[in-house]
Amino acid sequence: MNNAAPLLQVRQVAASRPGESGALQRVLQKTTFRVDAGEILAVVGPSGSGKSTLLRLLNRLLEAESGDILLSGENIRHFPPAELRASIPLVSQKPFLFPGTVMENLQASARLRQTELPTSSDPSLQELLELCHVDPAWLDRDARKLSVGQQQRVCLARAMVGPCQVLLLDEPTSALDRPTADQMALTFRQLAREKNLAIIFVTHDLRLTSRCADHVIFMANGAVVEEGSATQLLNHPETAEVQAFLDSGSEDDREVSA
Amino acid sequence: MTASIIDLSLWDLVTVYSLLLMSIGLAHLLKAGQSKDLFWSGLRMFIQLLVVGYVLHLIFALETPLPVLLILIVMVGFAVQTIGARVQTKMPHFYRVVGTAILFGCGGMTFFFCSLVIGLEPWYDPRYLIPLAGMIIGNSMTGASLAVERLAAEFRERRDEIETGLCLGGSIQTVSETAVSSAFRAALIPSVNAMAAMGLVFLPGMMTGQILSGTEPLIAVKYQIAIMCVITGSVSLTTFFILKLGYRAYFTPYQSLRED
Protein backbone atom coordinates (compact mmCIF):
# COMPACT_ATOMS: atom_id res chain seq x y z
CA MET A 1 0.00 0.00 0.00
CA ASN A 2 2.83 2.37 0.83
CA ASN A 3 4.25 2.70 -2.65
CA ALA A 4 0.88 3.64 -4.19
CA ALA A 5 -0.05 7.32 -3.93
CA PRO A 6 -2.52 7.93 -1.11
CA LEU A 7 -6.01 8.99 -2.17
CA LEU A 8 -5.66 12.42 -0.64
CA GLN A 9 -2.39 13.96 0.41
CA VAL A 10 -2.03 17.34 2.08
CA ARG A 11 1.53 18.65 2.03
CA GLN A 12 2.66 21.72 3.95
CA VAL A 13 -0.62 23.51 3.27
CA ALA A 14 -1.05 26.93 4.85
CA ALA A 15 -3.80 29.51 4.43
CA SER A 16 -4.48 33.13 5.31
CA ARG A 17 -7.69 35.10 5.26
CA PRO A 18 -8.51 38.75 5.67
CA GLY A 19 -9.15 39.47 9.32
CA GLU A 20 -11.46 42.11 10.78
CA SER A 21 -8.97 44.88 10.12
CA GLY A 22 -8.68 43.75 6.50
CA ALA A 23 -5.09 42.60 6.91
CA LEU A 24 -4.27 38.99 6.09
CA GLN A 25 -4.18 36.62 9.02
CA ARG A 26 -2.72 33.14 9.11
CA VAL A 27 -5.66 30.85 9.82
CA LEU A 28 -3.90 27.59 9.02
CA GLN A 29 -0.25 26.85 9.73
CA LYS A 30 1.62 24.43 7.50
CA THR A 31 -0.31 21.20 7.72
CA THR A 32 0.55 17.77 6.38
CA PHE A 33 -1.51 14.57 6.44
CA ARG A 34 -2.84 11.83 4.20
CA VAL A 35 -6.04 9.86 3.87
CA ASP A 36 -6.45 6.53 2.10
CA ALA A 37 -9.53 5.07 0.44
CA GLY A 38 -11.93 3.51 2.93
CA GLU A 39 -10.46 5.54 5.79
CA ILE A 40 -12.25 7.97 8.09
CA LEU A 41 -10.37 10.99 9.37
CA ALA A 42 -11.78 13.23 12.08
CA VAL A 43 -10.48 16.78 12.39
CA VAL A 44 -11.20 17.73 15.98
CA GLY A 45 -10.68 20.95 17.85
CA PRO A 46 -12.32 23.95 19.47
CA SER A 47 -14.21 26.54 17.39
CA GLY A 48 -11.97 28.88 15.44
CA SER A 49 -9.14 26.37 15.29
CA GLY A 50 -9.03 26.35 11.48
CA LYS A 51 -10.93 23.07 11.01
CA SER A 52 -13.52 24.43 8.60
CA THR A 53 -10.88 26.37 6.69
CA LEU A 54 -8.95 23.15 6.22
CA LEU A 55 -12.06 21.41 4.89
CA ARG A 56 -12.81 24.20 2.45
CA LEU A 57 -9.26 24.14 1.14
CA LEU A 58 -9.65 20.51 0.14
CA ASN A 59 -12.33 21.22 -2.45
CA ARG A 60 -10.98 24.67 -3.32
CA LEU A 61 -13.79 26.72 -1.87
CA LEU A 62 -10.76 28.47 -0.45
CA GLU A 63 -7.35 28.69 -2.03
CA ALA A 64 -4.27 27.56 -0.14
CA GLU A 65 -1.57 30.14 0.27
CA SER A 66 1.22 27.61 0.00
CA GLY A 67 1.68 23.86 -0.13
CA ASP A 68 0.03 21.21 -2.26
CA ILE A 69 -3.04 19.05 -2.04
CA LEU A 70 -2.92 15.92 -4.17
CA LEU A 71 -5.83 13.72 -5.18
CA SER A 72 -4.55 10.31 -6.29
CA GLY A 73 -1.14 11.91 -6.76
CA GLU A 74 -2.44 14.74 -8.94
CA ASN A 75 -2.39 18.35 -7.69
CA ILE A 76 -5.99 19.50 -7.21
CA ARG A 77 -5.15 22.74 -9.01
CA HIS A 78 -4.86 20.69 -12.20
CA PHE A 79 -8.53 19.68 -12.07
CA PRO A 80 -11.30 21.98 -13.26
CA PRO A 81 -12.82 23.11 -9.93
CA ALA A 82 -16.28 21.74 -10.75
CA GLU A 83 -14.86 18.32 -11.60
CA LEU A 84 -12.81 18.31 -8.41
CA ARG A 85 -15.83 19.17 -6.28
CA ALA A 86 -17.90 16.47 -7.93
CA SER A 87 -15.39 13.87 -6.74
CA ILE A 88 -14.79 15.57 -3.37
CA PRO A 89 -18.27 16.82 -2.40
CA LEU A 90 -18.70 18.79 0.81
CA VAL A 91 -21.79 18.55 3.00
CA SER A 92 -22.23 21.74 4.99
CA GLN A 93 -22.99 21.95 8.68
CA LYS A 94 -26.52 23.26 8.22
CA PRO A 95 -28.31 21.01 5.75
CA PHE A 96 -29.32 23.02 2.72
CA LEU A 97 -31.94 21.46 0.47
CA PHE A 98 -33.05 22.88 -2.84
CA PRO A 99 -36.75 23.71 -3.02
CA GLY A 100 -38.69 20.66 -4.17
CA THR A 101 -38.98 17.01 -3.28
CA VAL A 102 -36.22 14.72 -2.06
CA MET A 103 -36.11 13.09 -5.49
CA GLU A 104 -35.76 16.49 -7.14
CA ASN A 105 -32.84 17.21 -4.82
CA LEU A 106 -31.11 14.00 -5.84
CA GLN A 107 -31.74 14.77 -9.50
CA ALA A 108 -30.47 18.33 -9.09
CA SER A 109 -27.21 16.89 -7.83
CA ALA A 110 -26.93 14.66 -10.89
CA ARG A 111 -27.70 17.61 -13.15
CA LEU A 112 -25.05 19.78 -11.47
CA ARG A 113 -22.47 17.03 -11.99
CA GLN A 114 -23.72 16.28 -15.48
CA THR A 115 -24.22 12.62 -14.73
CA GLU A 116 -27.23 10.49 -15.57
CA LEU A 117 -30.44 11.46 -13.75
CA PRO A 118 -31.41 8.78 -11.23
CA THR A 119 -34.90 7.29 -11.16
CA SER A 120 -36.55 5.76 -8.11
CA SER A 121 -36.31 2.27 -9.65
CA ASP A 122 -32.54 2.57 -10.12
CA PRO A 123 -30.80 -0.22 -8.15
CA SER A 124 -27.76 2.01 -7.55
CA LEU A 125 -29.99 4.74 -6.15
CA GLN A 126 -31.83 2.26 -3.93
CA GLU A 127 -28.50 1.00 -2.62
CA LEU A 128 -27.35 4.57 -1.93
CA LEU A 129 -30.57 5.43 -0.10
CA GLU A 130 -30.24 2.31 2.01
CA LEU A 131 -26.63 3.12 2.89
CA CYS A 132 -27.56 6.65 3.91
CA HIS A 133 -30.68 5.47 5.75
CA VAL A 134 -32.93 7.55 3.53
CA ASP A 135 -36.40 6.00 3.49
CA PRO A 136 -37.58 5.61 -0.14
CA ALA A 137 -40.98 6.81 1.07
CA TRP A 138 -39.44 10.31 1.51
CA LEU A 139 -38.63 10.63 -2.18
CA ASP A 140 -41.86 12.38 -3.10
CA ARG A 141 -41.98 14.53 0.03
CA ASP A 142 -41.09 18.19 0.23
CA ALA A 143 -37.43 17.99 1.25
CA ARG A 144 -37.60 21.10 3.42
CA LYS A 145 -40.39 19.65 5.53
CA LEU A 146 -38.30 16.71 6.74
CA SER A 147 -36.73 16.78 10.20
CA VAL A 148 -33.17 18.10 10.48
CA GLY A 149 -31.81 14.60 10.93
CA GLN A 150 -33.66 13.39 7.86
CA GLN A 151 -32.48 16.42 5.90
CA GLN A 152 -28.90 15.66 6.91
CA ARG A 153 -29.28 12.14 5.48
CA VAL A 154 -30.76 13.43 2.26
CA CYS A 155 -27.82 15.86 1.95
CA LEU A 156 -25.47 12.94 2.45
CA ALA A 157 -27.17 10.86 -0.24
CA ARG A 158 -27.35 13.87 -2.53
CA ALA A 159 -23.60 14.39 -2.24
CA MET A 160 -23.01 10.86 -3.45
CA VAL A 161 -25.20 10.79 -6.52
CA GLY A 162 -22.57 10.08 -9.15
CA PRO A 163 -19.02 8.89 -8.60
CA CYS A 164 -17.12 10.41 -5.71
CA GLN A 165 -13.92 9.49 -3.90
CA VAL A 166 -13.68 11.64 -0.81
CA LEU A 167 -16.56 12.92 1.28
CA LEU A 168 -16.10 16.12 3.29
CA LEU A 169 -18.47 16.73 6.19
CA ASP A 170 -18.61 19.92 8.23
CA GLU A 171 -19.91 19.25 11.75
CA PRO A 172 -22.18 16.44 10.52
CA THR A 173 -23.85 15.82 13.87
CA SER A 174 -24.09 19.31 15.36
CA ALA A 175 -27.82 19.54 14.64
CA LEU A 176 -28.65 15.96 15.61
CA ASP A 177 -29.81 14.35 18.84
CA ARG A 178 -27.70 11.57 20.25
CA PRO A 179 -29.48 8.49 18.83
CA THR A 180 -29.53 10.06 15.36
CA ALA A 181 -25.87 11.04 15.70
CA ASP A 182 -24.98 7.50 16.73
CA GLN A 183 -26.80 6.15 13.71
CA MET A 184 -24.90 8.64 11.58
CA ALA A 185 -21.59 7.28 12.88
CA LEU A 186 -22.70 3.82 11.77
CA THR A 187 -23.67 5.19 8.37
CA PHE A 188 -20.21 6.70 7.90
CA ARG A 189 -18.55 3.39 8.72
CA GLN A 190 -20.73 1.59 6.20
CA LEU A 191 -20.12 4.21 3.52
CA ALA A 192 -16.35 4.07 3.97
CA ARG A 193 -16.34 0.28 3.89
CA GLU A 194 -18.83 -0.44 1.16
CA LYS A 195 -18.05 2.40 -1.23
CA ASN A 196 -14.33 2.44 -0.43
CA LEU A 197 -14.79 6.10 0.26
CA ALA A 198 -12.46 8.33 2.25
CA ILE A 199 -14.39 10.46 4.71
CA ILE A 200 -13.01 13.56 6.36
CA PHE A 201 -15.16 15.23 8.94
CA VAL A 202 -14.71 18.26 11.09
CA THR A 203 -16.25 18.07 14.54
CA HIS A 204 -15.97 18.68 18.22
CA ASP A 205 -18.19 15.69 18.86
CA LEU A 206 -15.87 13.22 20.61
CA ARG A 207 -18.53 10.55 20.76
CA LEU A 208 -18.87 10.56 16.97
CA THR A 209 -15.11 10.57 16.64
CA SER A 210 -14.61 7.59 18.92
CA ARG A 211 -17.42 5.70 17.22
CA CYS A 212 -16.24 5.92 13.65
CA ALA A 213 -12.91 7.64 13.03
CA ASP A 214 -9.78 5.69 12.13
CA HIS A 215 -7.47 8.66 12.50
CA VAL A 216 -7.77 11.93 14.33
CA ILE A 217 -6.10 15.27 13.79
CA PHE A 218 -6.41 17.65 16.70
CA MET A 219 -6.20 21.32 15.82
CA ALA A 220 -5.95 24.50 17.84
CA ASN A 221 -5.24 28.06 16.72
CA GLY A 222 -4.75 27.04 13.11
CA ALA A 223 -2.17 24.36 13.74
CA VAL A 224 -2.15 20.61 14.17
CA VAL A 225 -1.39 19.92 17.81
CA GLU A 226 -1.49 16.17 17.74
CA GLU A 227 -2.46 13.40 15.41
CA GLY A 228 -2.75 9.67 15.59
CA SER A 229 -5.13 6.75 15.54
CA ALA A 230 -8.48 7.44 17.15
CA THR A 231 -7.96 4.96 20.00
CA GLN A 232 -4.55 6.33 20.81
CA LEU A 233 -5.40 10.02 20.66
CA LEU A 234 -8.68 9.74 22.56
CA ASN A 235 -7.35 7.44 25.26
CA HIS A 236 -3.72 8.39 25.64
CA PRO A 237 -3.24 11.92 24.40
CA GLU A 238 0.36 13.12 24.40
CA THR A 239 -0.26 16.84 24.70
CA ALA A 240 -1.85 18.88 27.46
CA GLU A 241 -4.10 20.69 24.96
CA VAL A 242 -5.78 17.51 23.81
CA GLN A 243 -6.09 16.28 27.36
CA ALA A 244 -7.75 19.56 28.35
CA PHE A 245 -10.12 19.35 25.40
CA LEU A 246 -11.03 15.76 26.23
CA ASP A 247 -11.62 16.70 29.86
CA SER A 248 -13.81 19.66 28.95
CA GLY A 249 -16.23 17.39 27.05
CA SER A 250 -18.70 15.85 29.49
CA GLU A 251 -17.62 12.38 30.53
CA ASP A 252 -20.46 10.46 28.94
CA ASP A 253 -19.84 12.18 25.59
CA ARG A 254 -16.93 9.90 25.11
CA GLU A 255 -17.03 6.19 24.82
CA VAL A 256 -13.64 4.95 25.73
CA SER A 257 -13.09 1.79 23.81
CA ALA A 258 -9.97 -0.07 24.77
CA MET B 1 -45.57 71.46 -41.83
CA THR B 2 -43.07 72.94 -39.39
CA ALA B 3 -44.59 76.34 -39.97
CA SER B 4 -47.52 75.27 -37.80
CA ILE B 5 -45.35 74.95 -34.66
CA ILE B 6 -46.23 77.51 -32.01
CA ASP B 7 -43.03 78.75 -30.41
CA LEU B 8 -43.00 79.57 -26.70
CA SER B 9 -41.97 83.08 -25.85
CA LEU B 10 -39.88 84.00 -22.81
CA TRP B 11 -43.06 85.29 -21.21
CA ASP B 12 -44.73 81.91 -21.77
CA LEU B 13 -41.88 80.23 -19.88
CA VAL B 14 -42.18 82.65 -17.02
CA THR B 15 -45.88 81.85 -16.89
CA VAL B 16 -45.29 78.10 -16.60
CA TYR B 17 -42.62 78.63 -13.97
CA SER B 18 -45.29 80.34 -11.89
CA LEU B 19 -46.79 76.85 -11.62
CA LEU B 20 -43.61 75.73 -9.88
CA LEU B 21 -44.06 78.64 -7.47
CA MET B 22 -47.58 77.38 -6.87
CA SER B 23 -46.22 73.87 -6.13
CA ILE B 24 -43.69 75.36 -3.73
CA GLY B 25 -46.52 77.27 -2.05
CA LEU B 26 -48.61 74.14 -1.72
CA ALA B 27 -45.66 72.17 -0.35
CA HIS B 28 -45.10 74.92 2.19
CA LEU B 29 -48.78 74.95 3.12
CA LEU B 30 -48.77 71.21 3.82
CA LYS B 31 -45.42 71.45 5.62
CA ALA B 32 -44.06 68.78 3.25
CA GLY B 33 -40.59 70.29 3.59
CA GLN B 34 -40.04 70.00 -0.12
CA SER B 35 -39.96 73.68 -1.03
CA LYS B 36 -36.19 73.80 -1.31
CA ASP B 37 -36.01 70.60 -3.36
CA LEU B 38 -38.65 71.88 -5.74
CA PHE B 39 -36.90 75.20 -6.15
CA TRP B 40 -33.47 73.73 -6.78
CA SER B 41 -34.57 70.97 -9.10
CA GLY B 42 -36.67 73.48 -11.03
CA LEU B 43 -33.62 75.67 -11.41
CA ARG B 44 -31.39 72.74 -12.33
CA MET B 45 -33.84 71.67 -15.03
CA PHE B 46 -33.84 75.17 -16.46
CA ILE B 47 -30.05 75.46 -16.62
CA GLN B 48 -29.38 71.90 -17.76
CA LEU B 49 -31.91 71.98 -20.56
CA LEU B 50 -30.79 75.41 -21.67
CA VAL B 51 -27.22 74.15 -21.93
CA VAL B 52 -28.37 71.04 -23.79
CA GLY B 53 -30.43 73.20 -26.13
CA TYR B 54 -27.45 75.37 -27.03
CA VAL B 55 -25.12 72.37 -27.39
CA LEU B 56 -27.58 70.63 -29.70
CA HIS B 57 -28.07 73.85 -31.65
CA LEU B 58 -24.32 74.09 -32.10
CA ILE B 59 -23.83 70.46 -33.04
CA PHE B 60 -26.70 70.48 -35.54
CA ALA B 61 -24.94 73.37 -37.25
CA LEU B 62 -21.46 71.76 -37.23
CA GLU B 63 -22.24 68.78 -39.46
CA THR B 64 -19.19 66.70 -38.44
CA PRO B 65 -19.36 63.28 -36.73
CA LEU B 66 -16.76 63.85 -34.00
CA PRO B 67 -18.80 66.07 -31.62
CA VAL B 68 -21.80 63.77 -32.07
CA LEU B 69 -19.77 60.75 -31.03
CA LEU B 70 -18.35 62.71 -28.13
CA ILE B 71 -21.86 63.53 -26.91
CA LEU B 72 -22.82 59.86 -27.14
CA ILE B 73 -19.78 58.83 -25.10
CA VAL B 74 -20.64 61.44 -22.47
CA MET B 75 -24.21 60.08 -22.38
CA VAL B 76 -22.91 56.55 -21.77
CA GLY B 77 -20.64 57.89 -19.03
CA PHE B 78 -23.51 59.68 -17.31
CA ALA B 79 -25.70 56.61 -17.63
CA VAL B 80 -23.10 54.40 -15.93
CA GLN B 81 -22.61 57.06 -13.24
CA THR B 82 -26.36 57.31 -12.66
CA ILE B 83 -26.73 53.54 -12.32
CA GLY B 84 -23.82 53.59 -9.89
CA ALA B 85 -25.56 56.21 -7.77
CA ARG B 86 -28.93 54.49 -7.92
CA VAL B 87 -27.83 50.97 -7.10
CA GLN B 88 -27.14 50.21 -3.44
CA THR B 89 -25.14 47.02 -3.76
CA LYS B 90 -22.74 47.01 -6.63
CA MET B 91 -21.30 43.82 -8.03
CA PRO B 92 -17.52 43.43 -8.06
CA HIS B 93 -15.97 45.23 -11.08
CA PHE B 94 -19.22 47.21 -11.37
CA TYR B 95 -18.05 50.07 -13.61
CA ARG B 96 -16.19 47.85 -16.04
CA VAL B 97 -19.14 45.47 -16.39
CA VAL B 98 -21.88 48.09 -16.72
CA GLY B 99 -19.82 50.38 -18.96
CA THR B 100 -19.09 47.57 -21.40
CA ALA B 101 -22.71 46.41 -21.38
CA ILE B 102 -24.18 49.86 -22.01
CA LEU B 103 -21.60 50.66 -24.68
CA PHE B 104 -22.20 47.49 -26.67
CA GLY B 105 -25.88 46.90 -25.84
CA CYS B 106 -27.12 50.44 -26.44
CA GLY B 107 -24.50 51.21 -29.07
CA GLY B 108 -25.39 48.11 -31.04
CA MET B 109 -29.11 48.80 -30.91
CA THR B 110 -28.72 52.48 -31.81
CA PHE B 111 -26.55 51.57 -34.77
CA PHE B 112 -28.99 48.86 -35.82
CA PHE B 113 -31.94 51.26 -35.78
CA CYS B 114 -30.28 54.33 -37.25
CA SER B 115 -28.24 52.69 -39.97
CA LEU B 116 -30.10 49.53 -40.90
CA VAL B 117 -33.72 50.59 -40.31
CA ILE B 118 -33.99 54.34 -40.80
CA GLY B 119 -30.90 54.53 -43.01
CA LEU B 120 -29.62 57.86 -41.73
CA GLU B 121 -27.86 60.04 -44.29
CA PRO B 122 -25.25 61.07 -43.12
CA TRP B 123 -24.93 58.22 -40.62
CA TYR B 124 -24.28 60.58 -37.73
CA ASP B 125 -27.21 62.99 -38.41
CA PRO B 126 -27.44 64.44 -34.87
CA ARG B 127 -31.11 65.39 -35.26
CA TYR B 128 -31.96 61.67 -35.17
CA LEU B 129 -28.96 60.03 -33.58
CA ILE B 130 -28.78 62.05 -30.36
CA PRO B 131 -32.43 61.93 -29.24
CA LEU B 132 -32.80 58.27 -30.28
CA ALA B 133 -29.61 57.27 -28.48
CA GLY B 134 -30.86 59.26 -25.50
CA MET B 135 -34.09 57.30 -25.33
CA ILE B 136 -32.35 53.98 -25.86
CA ILE B 137 -29.67 54.66 -23.24
CA GLY B 138 -32.14 56.16 -20.77
CA ASN B 139 -34.45 53.18 -20.85
CA SER B 140 -31.61 50.66 -20.81
CA MET B 141 -30.25 52.47 -17.79
CA THR B 142 -33.42 51.72 -15.86
CA GLY B 143 -33.29 48.08 -16.92
CA ALA B 144 -29.61 47.87 -16.06
CA SER B 145 -30.08 49.25 -12.53
CA LEU B 146 -32.90 46.79 -11.92
CA ALA B 147 -30.74 43.92 -13.18
CA VAL B 148 -27.69 44.90 -11.12
CA GLU B 149 -29.77 45.41 -7.98
CA ARG B 150 -31.59 42.13 -8.40
CA LEU B 151 -28.47 40.14 -9.18
CA ALA B 152 -26.84 41.42 -5.99
CA ALA B 153 -29.94 40.55 -3.98
CA GLU B 154 -30.10 37.07 -5.50
CA PHE B 155 -26.45 36.37 -4.73
CA ARG B 156 -26.98 37.57 -1.18
CA GLU B 157 -30.16 35.58 -0.57
CA ARG B 158 -29.10 32.47 -2.44
CA ARG B 159 -25.60 32.23 -1.03
CA ASP B 160 -26.26 28.88 0.65
CA GLU B 161 -27.97 27.48 -2.40
CA ILE B 162 -25.18 28.60 -4.73
CA GLU B 163 -22.46 27.28 -2.47
CA THR B 164 -24.28 23.98 -2.07
CA GLY B 165 -24.42 23.76 -5.86
CA LEU B 166 -20.68 24.40 -6.08
CA CYS B 167 -19.97 21.80 -3.40
CA LEU B 168 -21.85 19.20 -5.43
CA GLY B 169 -19.71 19.88 -8.50
CA GLY B 170 -21.84 22.43 -10.33
CA SER B 171 -20.20 24.92 -12.70
CA ILE B 172 -20.48 28.60 -11.81
CA GLN B 173 -22.76 29.02 -14.81
CA THR B 174 -25.19 26.31 -13.67
CA VAL B 175 -25.31 27.41 -10.04
CA SER B 176 -26.01 31.04 -11.08
CA GLU B 177 -28.83 30.18 -13.48
CA THR B 178 -31.70 31.01 -11.13
CA ALA B 179 -30.14 34.28 -10.01
CA VAL B 180 -29.40 35.36 -13.57
CA SER B 181 -32.84 34.53 -14.96
CA SER B 182 -34.56 36.27 -12.07
CA ALA B 183 -32.47 39.42 -12.62
CA PHE B 184 -33.24 39.38 -16.34
CA ARG B 185 -36.96 39.08 -15.63
CA ALA B 186 -36.83 42.03 -13.22
CA ALA B 187 -35.04 44.19 -15.80
CA LEU B 188 -37.58 43.52 -18.53
CA ILE B 189 -40.75 44.07 -16.51
CA PRO B 190 -40.92 47.84 -17.23
CA SER B 191 -40.58 47.25 -20.98
CA VAL B 192 -43.24 44.55 -20.97
CA ASN B 193 -45.63 46.76 -18.97
CA ALA B 194 -44.94 49.81 -21.13
CA MET B 195 -45.64 47.96 -24.36
CA ALA B 196 -48.84 46.44 -23.03
CA ALA B 197 -50.21 49.74 -21.70
CA MET B 198 -49.05 51.88 -24.61
CA GLY B 199 -51.75 54.02 -26.14
CA LEU B 200 -54.35 52.92 -23.60
CA VAL B 201 -53.01 54.30 -20.37
CA PHE B 202 -50.74 56.97 -21.72
CA LEU B 203 -49.58 58.47 -24.97
CA PRO B 204 -45.84 57.97 -25.09
CA GLY B 205 -43.64 61.05 -24.93
CA MET B 206 -41.92 60.68 -28.24
CA MET B 207 -45.15 60.23 -30.16
CA THR B 208 -46.77 63.16 -28.39
CA GLY B 209 -43.74 65.29 -29.17
CA GLN B 210 -43.77 64.37 -32.83
CA ILE B 211 -47.50 65.07 -33.12
CA LEU B 212 -47.07 68.42 -31.37
CA SER B 213 -44.35 69.35 -33.83
CA GLY B 214 -46.60 68.59 -36.77
CA THR B 215 -45.87 64.98 -37.72
CA GLU B 216 -48.73 62.89 -39.14
CA PRO B 217 -50.12 60.75 -36.25
CA LEU B 218 -49.64 57.57 -38.27
CA ILE B 219 -45.99 58.31 -38.92
CA ALA B 220 -45.58 59.16 -35.23
CA VAL B 221 -47.23 55.85 -34.30
CA LYS B 222 -44.90 53.90 -36.55
CA TYR B 223 -41.89 55.61 -35.02
CA GLN B 224 -43.22 54.91 -31.55
CA ILE B 225 -43.67 51.22 -32.33
CA ALA B 226 -40.20 51.06 -33.83
CA ILE B 227 -38.55 52.83 -30.89
CA MET B 228 -40.35 50.61 -28.36
CA CYS B 229 -39.03 47.50 -30.12
CA VAL B 230 -35.54 48.99 -30.21
CA ILE B 231 -35.75 49.99 -26.53
CA THR B 232 -36.89 46.51 -25.53
CA GLY B 233 -34.13 45.04 -27.66
CA SER B 234 -31.59 47.33 -26.06
CA VAL B 235 -32.80 46.67 -22.51
CA SER B 236 -32.59 42.93 -23.04
CA LEU B 237 -29.21 43.05 -24.80
CA THR B 238 -27.67 45.41 -22.23
CA THR B 239 -29.08 43.33 -19.38
CA PHE B 240 -27.84 40.16 -21.02
CA PHE B 241 -24.30 41.58 -21.22
CA ILE B 242 -24.45 42.84 -17.64
CA LEU B 243 -25.61 39.47 -16.33
CA LYS B 244 -23.23 37.39 -18.43
CA LEU B 245 -20.26 39.51 -17.43
CA GLY B 246 -21.61 40.30 -13.99
CA TYR B 247 -22.35 36.89 -12.49
CA ARG B 248 -18.73 35.84 -12.99
CA ALA B 249 -17.65 38.78 -10.88
CA TYR B 250 -19.20 37.07 -7.85
CA PHE B 251 -16.77 34.17 -8.17
CA THR B 252 -13.05 33.79 -7.61
CA PRO B 253 -10.77 32.66 -10.47
CA TYR B 254 -10.91 29.14 -8.98
CA GLN B 255 -14.70 29.22 -9.11
CA SER B 256 -15.77 29.65 -5.52
CA LEU B 257 -17.95 32.43 -4.15
CA ARG B 258 -16.17 35.64 -3.23
CA GLU B 259 -16.17 36.40 0.47
CA ASP B 260 -17.26 40.06 0.34
Write a structural description.
- By secondary structure, chain A is of the alpha/beta class.
- Chain A contains 9 helices and 10 strands.
- Chain A has a single domain (37-62, 78-253), classed as Rossmann fold.
- In chain A, the strands form 2 sheets. Chain A has a 6-stranded mixed β-sheet, sandwiched between helices. In chain A, strands 2-1-4-5 form a 4-stranded antiparallel β-sheet, covered by helices on one side.
- In chain A, helix 6 links the parallel strand 7 and strand 8 (198-203).
- Chain B has 260 residues and is an all-alpha fold.
- Chain B has helices at residues 10-29, 35-62, 65-86, 94-118, 126-157, 159-167, 172-197, 205-212, 217-246.
- The longest helix of chain B is centred in the middle third of the chain and has 32 residues, at 126-157.
- Chain B starts with 9 loop residues before the first helix and ends in a 14-residue tail after the last helix.
- The mean pLDDT of chain B is 91.
- The interface between A and B is medium-sized, with 30 and 20 residues.
Short description:
Chain A has 258 residues and is of the alpha/beta class. Chain A has nine helices and ten strands. In chain A, helix 3 packs parallel to helix 5 and helix 6 packs parallel to helix 7.
Give a topology summary:
The complex is a heterodimer of chains A (258) and B (260).
Chain A: E1 8-18, E2 24-35, E3 40-44, H1 51-58, E4 66-71, E5 74-75, H2 81-87, E6 90-91, H3 102-113, H4 123-131, H5 148-159, E7 166-170, H6 178-194, E8 198-203, H7 206-212, E9 215-220, E10 223-229, H8 230-235, H9 240-248
Parallel strand pairs in A: 3-8, 3-9, 6-7, 7-8
Antiparallel strand pairs in A: 1-2, 1-4, 4-5, 9-10
Chain B: H1 10-29, H2 35-62, H3 65-86, H4 94-118, H5 126-157, H6 159-167, H7 172-197, H8 205-212, H9 217-246
Helix pairs in contact in B: 1-2, 3-4, 3-5, 4-5, 4-9, 5-7, 5-9, 6-7, 7-9, 8-9
